[in-house]
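Action item from last week, closing it out:
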Amino acid sequence: MKKNKNLYLTIIFVLIVCGLLGFSYYLNNKGVEASNLPKEALEDPEIREAYEYVVENPEFLDYIPCYCNCNRLGHNNIKDCFVSKFKSDGNVVFDHHGAG
């Protein structure tokens, strides 16, 4: 009986450690690739946060219009101010318009 208890405790411990490592990996890899960001987003944490939000929540921003008259640039919504294209390989082509 004691042998089974030790086995169960070991399994639980391993699962907890794996879960914590996975969550830590998720937190460290969340966000966007810094090398692709506009220069202003690298210099200002608030601008970077805005770009990261757009990349992580594009479906919501499709419905929010932009009020800076950028529709003449071909922008249809606020997402277009930040992202020019979401590539099929997962990379993002950023628009510098959202940086300022």
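Closing note: Residues 1-30 form one domain.
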